[in-house]
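Q: What residues go here?
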C-alpha cells in the first residue's frame, strides 16, 4: 500500500496539480465534468435546460459558500481540468433540516455528515487510482471538519464507481429510483 501511495504522489507531482477553485476559470469545466459524470451512469443522458440552470446555481453556491462546499480540482500540464471531487457538508445534523431527509438512517439522527456530490476523472487519466485518491481526500477533509459520515448517490448502472465505493468501505443503504445511496461511517462505534 505504501508503494502505491508513493507512486500516486509521484504521478500527481509529475502530471497533475491541485488548484484552487476559481468560478470564472473553472465554472464551465466543473459543469461539463458534472454532466460527464451523469453520463457515466446514464449514457443516453442529455441535460435539459432546467438541469443546466440548477447545476449553474449549485456551482455558484459552491464558489461562494466555501465553508460548506469543498472542491478539489486537478489540472494537467495544459491547465485542463482532469479530476474533480465536490464535497458538500450538511449544514444541520440529520433530522433537523428538511433539505437532507435521510429517514432510512435513524442511527444518524443528530449527527453531521457530508455528501460527495461528484467524483470525476477525465478519460485520459482513468485507471490510475485518481478517483480513489480523491475519495480518500474527501474522507480526510470530512474528518477534519468533524463529519461523522460520508454519503453519495450513484447510478445503479455505474458499476465502476459502485465497485470503487465498496472497496473504500461504502455500503449501499437504500435505493432512490435509478440510484443507490451509499454511506461510509467516519467515526468508531457506529
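A:
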Amino acid at each position: 500500500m505504501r508503494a502505491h501511495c508513493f507512486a500516486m504522489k509521484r504521478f500527481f507531482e509529475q502530471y497533475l496539480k491541485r488548484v484552487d477553485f476559481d468560478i470564472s476559470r473553472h465554472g464551465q469545466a466543473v459543469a461539463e465534468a458534472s454532466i460527464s459524470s451523469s453520463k457515466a451512469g446514464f449514457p443516453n443522458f442529455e441535460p435539459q435546460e432546467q438541469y443546466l440552470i440548477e447545476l449553474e446555481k449549485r456551482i455558484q453556491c459552491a464558489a461562494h459558500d466555501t465553508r460548506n462546499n469543498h472542491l478539489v480540482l486537478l489540472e494537467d500540464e495544459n491547465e485542463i481540468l482532469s479530476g474533480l471531487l465536490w464535497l458538500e457538508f450538511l449544514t444541520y445534523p440529520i433530522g433537523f433540516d428538511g433539505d437532507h431527509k435521510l429517514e432510512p438512517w435513524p442511527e444518524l439522527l443528530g449527527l453531521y455528515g457530508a455528501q460527495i456530490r461528484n467524483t470525476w476523472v477525465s478519460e485520459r487519466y482513468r485507471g490510475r487510482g485518481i478517483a480513489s485518491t480523491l475519495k480518500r481526500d474527501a474522507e480526510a477533509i470530512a474528518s477534519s471538519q468533524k463529519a461523522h459520515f460520508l454519503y453519495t448517490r450513484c447510478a445503479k448502472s455505474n458499476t465502476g464507481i459502485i465497485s470503487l465505493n465498496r472497496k473504500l468501505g461504502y455500503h449501499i443503504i437504500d435505493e432512490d429510483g435509478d440510484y443507490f445511496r451509499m454511506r461510509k461511517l467516519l467515526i468508531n462505534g457506529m
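A: Context that may help when evaluating the design: Confidence is low (pLDDT under 50) at residues 1-9, 96-100. The helical segments are 2-15, 23-41, 49-64, 130-144, 159-167.
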